[in-house]
């Protein structure tokens, strides 16, 4: 995916998070089932706010993981269907040309 596609996906995901929620990073050993919806949204916001900066410094794989994890958390909150998430960050057709 290109930077503009990450930006578009991040923008779409941010729209699903209530505006009054702040961002918050959680300890890596905290389980999702032990978090409130507000905590999940706060962590999503933290992840999404870092996606483009990670991409910009060449950490595309980490940016992809952050985006995917935020999408999964938002999916658990019924903000998006699997189909909507798949369409949110589809690569350009040209990226698939080598597999045709």
Question: Describe it for me?
Answer:
With 100 residues, the protein is mostly helical. It has one domain. The protein contains 5 helices and no strands. The protein has helices spanning 3-15, 37-56, 60-76, 82-88, 93-96. Helix 1 (3-15) packs antiparallel against helix 2 (37-56) and helix 1 (3-15) runs parallel beside helix 3 (60-76). It is globular and about 35 Å long. It starts with a helix and ends with a helix.
Secondary-structure element string:
HHHHH
Shape: globular
Q: What is the total number of structural domains?
A: 1
* Distance N to C terminus: 18 Å
- Which segments are poorly predicted (pLDDT under 50) over 5 or more consecutive residues? 96-100
Number of strands: 0
* Share of helical residues: 55-70%
Over the alpha carbons, how many angstroms does the gyration radius reach?
A: 14 Å
Helix count equals 5
Mean pLDDT across residues: 85
Helix and strand content put the structural class at mainly alpha
Describe the sheet with the most strands. Answer: none
Strand content: under 5%
């Amino acid at each position: 995916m290109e930077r503009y596609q990450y930006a578009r996906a991040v923008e779409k995901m941010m729209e699903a998070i209530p505006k009054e929620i702040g961002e918050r990073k959680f300890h890596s050993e905290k389980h999702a089932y032990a978090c409130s919806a507000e905590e999940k949204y706060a962590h999503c916001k933290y992840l999404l706010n870092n996606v483009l900066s990670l991409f910009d410094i060449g950490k595309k794989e980490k940016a992809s993981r952050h985006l995917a994890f935020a999408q999964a958390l938002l999916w658990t909150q019924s903000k998006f269907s699997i189909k909507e998430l798949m369409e949110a960050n589809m690569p350009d057709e040209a990226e698939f040309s080598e597999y045709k």
